[in-house]
Amino acid sequence: MLAIFGLLFLVMFFRILYIQVTGSVHGHDLVKEAEAKFNKTQVEQAERGSILDANGVPIVTNTASYDLFAVVSPEASAGTKQKLHVSDPNRTATILSKYINMPKKDILNKLKMKKPDGSPYYQVEFGAVGKNLSHSQMQKIADEELPGINFTETTQRFYPNGMFASNIIGFSQRTENEGIVEIVGKSGLEKTFNKELSGENGEVNFSKDKWGYIFPGTEKMITPPKDGDNIYLTLDKTIQNILESEVSKVDAEYKPKSIVAVVADPKTGKILASTQRPTFNSQKNEGMNTSWLNRLTETTIEPGSTMKAFTLATAIEKGVWDPNATFMSGQYTVGGRTIRDANQVGWGRISYLEAIQRSSNVGMANLLERIGDENFLNSIAKFGFGEKTGIDLPGEATGKILDQYKINTVTTTYGQGSTVTPIQLIQAFSAIANNGEMMKPYVINKIVDPNTGKVLKNNKPEAVGQPISAETAKEVRDILATTITSPKGTARNFASQEYEVSGKTGTAQIPNNKGGYDWGKGKFLYSFIGMAPQKDPQLVMYVAVEKPNLKGTEYGSEPVSKIFNAVMESSLKYMNVETDMSQVPQKEPIDSYLGEKTTDIVKELTGQKYEPIVVGSEGKITDQFPKKGSVVLEKGKILLKTKGAVILPDFKGWSLRDVLKYKELSGINMKVVGDGYVSKQSVPAGVTLKKNDAVQITLKTPKEQYSKKK
């Protein structure tokens, strides 16, 4: 027996010695398995960085959200007096259906779900409708005190402005990887800068026993998380909101196939605002499948007559521009093919200046003869067409300038055949607005590490060429302004009552899937690229509306001008740019309307694109403002005095001059407070005033009206 036990002891001794030396049994690493059992690691998630506008106003941040789940197994309540599981499924389903987008019947089915073996689940979830609940939603459900209904707190991306430059900013989604839930960018800047925004997760290491208690004498080893970087954009929230509002109005009214609009600073290349339709709302998960592509940079277009601005600039720069020289408009034959002006027949023999004003395709073809094909193509390349701008946005397209045949070069002079991107047009137009110096566009102002405050990236304005001289740029601006001020101009709808505007309209044919082009009213891409104020442009803007549903008497420039005019004027006022209207559109002086029938004159003036305001309610016209012989801008107000009670108009946006004149003509008791433009009136529009009624009109300066909100 002693020998047997001695032998067993020796075997056990050598076995223990072997285990101590090797640390493994049957291939199992005992050290690692012990560490795995008792040493625990808890991930400390980094906070995703914010995206802010040029003034530091948050555009994208993080917020707490809540995921709903229900404990349905009675085991959860075993040994307690409390109900910790769903004890009344019918009542629970009835109440939950008020707060989540799921019918009572489906909720009830969830609560009664069984495993394949027929046993109940311990807990169930409610899919997408039960995730990402806001704090207010969670609180309302919690206040119902439903047994078994619980929440897990998570973090989600918060887009407080909803549909706000969505195709630039993009969106992110919560994803789960090895039990760790992370927010991952899926498009736009959220995707491109996902690594910078994500930061680095930290961790906490500690040892605990099988009951979950930390071993005595041990300490937590903490590696703190590094929060994601904050990205500051060049976008200005105020200008962006103005743009979104006006684009939404036109989108609702005309229901076009698409809209793209962008506002930029020509002196720096900063993109101040950009939007498109269709787009999406990341906060509400609306339209997420409609359009992920950013039309500003990722899609190409045939630019139409906006390209004529660069053909004109090339002719002036090469010294071959003669505004008074003439040519025969209507048609032009090249390589056996005939190109025509938009009206198919032309306007007879006209000057090259009139060709720009009327947007004559034939005029550009004749101008190309003076420029020379090689000179023209070299100039277009200097303006950056056919090459990426290098803007800090993903997926930028290149476009293509066709030059294989003579006809390609001819059609490129007026923007057909060759393709460009809207951002290329903005970059090229910056040279005209910025005295010949072309500025590279960008949307990221700086990237900041919130952990240290260190600026990791700081973009500065960058000139990328000088395709034309300052003298040429000034002359181009002057000539393009006449497309707005001349009676022959195609851009008369873009006249501003506050600022001198210079720019070029475009009506481009759209290729179809049959190898040709669509044709007919409302079947084109209508656009305008413009700047203001003309003498020293502070903003450039491009707007394109594709296939709008036009009314019977409307032209394609109508929806485009509604966006451009409102955004350009409001943005310049917000920037506190002084108005300058020394250059008045060339309209005929107005006539005298005294003694005329009010309804007839109102109809006549409306047809001439004025805004007639009737001061009174009956009879013929007894007075007017302005007087006979005055020149009034398109959409300018003409006050017509009649007899009868005064029906108050909507004064919002009126100048002090117009308000005071209305007060004089109407004779009503009006108290005018402030300066600038009307922001509020004490009596609403449409009210018929009695003899002794008083009205207070409050005006604010542009700076007061468009000052930044803190």
UniProtKB/TrEMBL annotation:
Keywords: Membrane. The keyword Electron transport does not apply. Residues 642-701 form the PASTA domain. Pfam families: PASTA (PF03793), PBP_dimer (PF03717), Transpeptidase (PF00905). SUPFAM superfamilies: beta-lactamase/transpeptidase-like (SSF56601), Penicillin binding protein dimerisation domain (SSF56519), Penicillin-binding protein 2x (pbp-2x), c-terminal domain (SSF54184). Its main location: membrane. It comes from the Bacteria. It is found in: Membrane. PROSITE patterns: PASTA. Belongs to the transpeptidase family. This is Penicillin-binding protein 2B. It comes from Kurthia zopfii.
